[in-house]
Amino acid sequence: MTNHEPGGRSPEPDLPAPDTTSTSSHAPDPPVRLSGAGQLLAVLPHLLGYRPERSIVVVALALDPRGTLGQMVFAGRLDLPTTPDLGVGLQQLRYAVQQAADGSSGPTLLAVFGHDLPTGPDGEVDRAAVAGLLAASRGLAHDTGCHVHDLVLVRDTAAGRQMCAVVADGEDVLEQERGWRAAPSAPDVPAAADLVLSGRAVLPSRGAVAASVRRRDEEASRATDVSLRLLHLAPERLDEGRALSDLDACLHEGSTLDARQRAQVAVVLQDRWVRDAVLARWLPDLPWAQDASVPGELVEASRALRPWPTTAHQEGLERLLTLVAQVPRGLGGPLLTLGAMVAWTRGDGTVANEMCDLALEVDPGSQLAGLLRRALEVGLRPPRPAPGRQAGRPAERRARGRSGGRPAA
Questions:
Q1: Are 92 and 49 in contact (CB under 8 A)?
Q2: Which of 56, 101, 214, 280 is spaced 20 to 30 A from 67 at the CA atom?
Q3: pLDDT score of 367
Q4: How buried is 337 (Cβ within 10 angstroms: 0-12 exposed, 13-18 middle, 19+ buried)?
Q5: Is the separation of the CB atoms in 347 and 20 below 8 Å?
Q6: Is 18 helix (H, G, I), strand (E, B) or coil?
Q7: How confident is the model at residue 25 (pLDDT cuts 50, 70, 90)?
Q8: Backbone angles phi, psi at 146, to 5 degrees
Q9: Residue 390: is its pLDDT beyond 50?
């Protein structure tokens, strides 16, 4: 992965969290039909959210017991390590790949893409790097009970992107038979257009994703700060229900919040109990949400919140990030943490990583952001909905019988 900006971060800076995406019933993408590793390579940027460079990308494909009807269940990206030992990096994906394999009823195949591996004096990819990637891929497959189905080298040239198969359809390609050929481009793959229509935009680089998360609207932030000071002078004007309703309208309808509304939202979300209520309403079908503590008086205030949009998931995150940019940096931590949780549960690990990093910089003591950081570091997949779970009413059920009291924000 990219080097992270300074801030309250992981205790293992040499092994940053992988960017991952996985299938999710919360935000269903349209079914896409792909033929071969080349077409899969063409749509990877749409799955990750950016064009990978100097990376190793691992895709897990689940087959049914008959060995047909493959489905992508996981994709993860890592920076190329600075040492020849590629196995150390790939082991970061072991938990996620293991989860994918354990959840499949049939065999699980791995497609591994090595982007921009080191080259030798002749300009060709270094043989030792290729051998290291092959050994690391087989080691990951062995440890997780999977099979390496494809291993493809990828490079960019003046003539366009090229690919070279090292393993194809589960069979090793002899070194003397390997050769570079033009990789399919996204416009040539119908599935890529389907992903674009579903909101899967592609940014030019991993750094562009970070810049999008970290953007600032300082003029709007200063206006919000003025409203915060006025609210501090008259705290009785704080209206939790109105603030949550404004937040819902912003995310679902794209409503523009004025400085007073942004100040109210920022202050309300400083309360951990309110954040619990927001998560319970945004992600009502997740099994872990049933244990969230939501005091009784927040039930009515949070009724305005609708579940996180499914068909407009990316638009919702974009609107949330715009709101983060418009509040003082020191108050953006709760919004970032909530957004990171949503992105992670929807399989959008790239944005989840960046939002979690920035949340910990703003508030290094955030327990939720810290727990999410550890989950991202090991490539843990998000929980799945509990069968038969009733959506939209967890907060009401948990509030029964509670006194309703809660600490001050």
A1: no
A2: 56
A3: 92
A4: buried
A5: yes
A6: coil
A7: very low
A8: -105, -175
A9: no
Q: How far apart are CA 113 and CA 216, in angstroms?
A: 35
Query: Closest Cα to residue 283, out of 103, 21, 275, 409?
Result: 275
Determine the distance from the C-alpha atom of residue 158 to the mean position of all C-alpha atoms in its chain, rounded to a whole number: 31
Share of the chain above pLDDT 90, in %: 48
- How far apart CA 191 and CA 390 sit, in angstroms, is 33
Burial state string for 31-69 with b = 16 or more CB within 10 A and e = fewer than 16: ebebeebbbbbbbbbbbbbbbbbebbbbbbbbbeeeeee
Helical H segments across 78-214, by residue range: 86-90, 94-102, 127-144, 190-197, 206-213
CA distance 401 to 139: 52
> C-alpha distances in angstroms, 229 versus 260, 264, 318?
10, 11, 27
What is the rounded distance in angstroms from the CA atom of residue 305 to the CA atom of residue 337?
Answer: 17
Q: What is the DSSP annotation of 376-396?
A: HHTTPPPPPPPTTPPTT-HHH
Residue 48 in tokens: 């990750």
Average pLDDT of 351-360? 95
- With a CB cutoff of 8 Å and minimum separation 6, the contacts of 369 are 333, 336, 337, 340, 356, 359, 360, 363
Dist. CA 399–CA 297, nearest whole Å: 8
| Per-residue pLDDT at 7 | 30
Q: What pLDDT shows up at residue 83?
A: 66
Q: Which two tokens stand for residue 209?
A: 């994703």
The span from the CA of 251 to the CA of 329, in Å, is 20
Close Cβ partners of 76 (under 8 Å, ≥ 6 residues apart): 18, 19, 20, 21, 57, 58, 93, 96, 97, 349, 379
What confidence tens digit (pLDDT) does each residue in 60-105 have?
Answer: 988 866 655 567 888 888 888 776 667 667 888 888 899 888 877 7
List, for residues 179-218, the tens digit of each pLDDT value.
Answer: 999 999 888 888 777 777 766 778 888 899 999 999 999 9
How far is the C-alpha of 142 from the C-alpha of 161, rounded, in Å?
A: 30
Cα 130 to Cα 16: distance, rounded to the nearest angstrom? 23
- Burial (CB < 10 A; 0-12, 13-18, 19+), residue 365, is exposed
